[in-house]
Write a structure and sequence with these properties.
It is built from 14 helices and 17 strands. It is α/β, with parallel strands linked by helices.
Length: 388
């Protein structure tokens, strides 16, 4: 917290000023389903406490924080990003869209930061130029991670990259926010001091996903929500489900279909008890499901796990997905790529309807402390801690 000194005729008075926070997210501020939604819940709490400086973002999708606090990266930035992504998906797969987007974002935001007087930079992107500029201006920097460290991803997917921007950003940050133990471990493994890392799980709208009178149904419906892509362990899920061939059952998948899997998805759509719904609002599917499965190989702490818990569902997931429950309580935590254990846990929930209802109730109970309001308060406590 900054201090200023005012000179009175007879004495010097020290006056404390409110700490000002500037947020930077390479996303639409307030839009559900992306980093901007997480930023929104933190910044809204900061605004209430009169600590908000500025928000630099791609676009605005909310009304609670006044527009005067919001600065866009530049006009047409979203269209520019979409154009680069289009090239990668449909024209040239090896086109470096993501590096171009990040370098441009970092360069533009570093210029905007120069004109902002604040005490804390809370940034949701690996942007070393921006972070260094903030440090030169005397700001404390909080780096909010979107995923486990890239070195961990390389081990999982057998890649070998340099991660320069990621490592430099982590080096200059005062604090690194990790949303799960998996992310904490990944940054420690990359050489980051554990004392620099703060474990703060995400939040969820507890009212939106509250469904009363959940009953045991005759048909077993298992739900998956998220991108339908390799990183999420989709191939192993489909293999486990088809080999089980459970009677009177259905696997429902809500999420955009990745073009790289279009050939496999075309075959999978022919399976009688699998439904691919594409991009859709999953709320009613949470309500009607009996269990939730999310076998991802790399996440931070998947928001869909919080939503499924709030919806009172038993869960099958991986440690790499960032669950906030222990194995055997609100569900099961299985190894990545292990479709055999996945089959075993699916069969258990199928055979034990009373137990899955019991696990679902515990899911709801455990997630109650993870409201978005509590999430915002935790981060504001971190700001205070930086200046204590």
């Amino acid at each position: 917290m900054k201090k200023i000194e005012k000179i009175n005729k007879n004495k010097r008075i020290t006056v404390k000023q409110t700490t000002k926070i500037v947020y930077v997210c390479n996303s639409d501020f307030g839009r559900h389903g992306n980093i901007g939604f997480r930023t929104y819940h933190v910044a809204k709490e900061t605004y209430k406490q009169k600590k908000l400086g500025r928000i630099i973002c791609r676009g605005n999708a909310q009304k609670d924080v006044p527009k005067k606090f919001i600065k866009y990266v530049f006009p047409g930035y979203r269209i520019f990003n979409l154009g680069l992504s289009f090239i990668t998906q449909f024209i040239w797969k090896k086109f470096p869209a993501r590096p171009i987007q990040l370098h441009l974002f970092d360069w533009v935001v570093s210029k905007k930061i120069k004109k902002i007087d604040a005490d804390v930079l809370h940034i949701y992107e690996y942007a070393p130029r921006t972070i260094k500029q903030a440090k030169r201006q005397g700001m404390k920097v909080i780096l909010d991670t979107q995923m486990a460290h890239g070195k961990t991803a390389d081990k999982i997917f057998n890649k070998n990259r340099k991660h320069v921007e990621e490592n430099v950003s982590a080096k200059y940050a005062n604090k690194i926010i990790a949303s799960s133990q998996f992310v904490v471990d990944s940054y420690i493994d990359s050489g980051i001091d554990v004392n620099k890392i703060e474990l703060i799980p995400h939040g969820v709208d507890l009212n939106k996903f509250k469904f009363s009178n959940k009953k045991i149904t005759k048909k077993f419906t298992c739900l998956y929500v998220g991108l339908v892509e390799t990183r999420k362990g989709i191939e192993y899920l489909i293999k486990a489900w088809t080999e089980l061939n459970l009677k009177n059952s259905e696997l429902v998948l809500c999420g955009r279909l990745n073009l790289s899997l279009r050939k496999q998805i075309k075959k999978w759509k022919k399976i009688r008890n699998i439904k691919f719904l594409g991009f859709t609002d999953p709320k009613k599917y949470y309500k009607n499901a009996d269990a939730f499965i999310f076998p991802s190989m790399l996440e931070s702490s998947a928001k869909v796990l919080y939503e499924a818990m709030a919806a009172e569902l038993p869960i099958i997931t991986t440690f790499n997905s960032g669950p906030i429950f222990k194995d055997g309580t609100a569900g099961f935590i299985i190894p990545i790529r292990d479709y055999k254990i996945m089959k075993e846990k699916l069969k258990y929930l199928y055979d034990n309807p009373k137990q899955r209802v019991k696990m679902g109730k515990l899911s709801r109970k455990l997630v109650l402390k993870h409201s978005w309001k509590n999430y915002g308060k935790k981060l504001n406590k971190l700001y205070a801690k930086l200046f204590s």
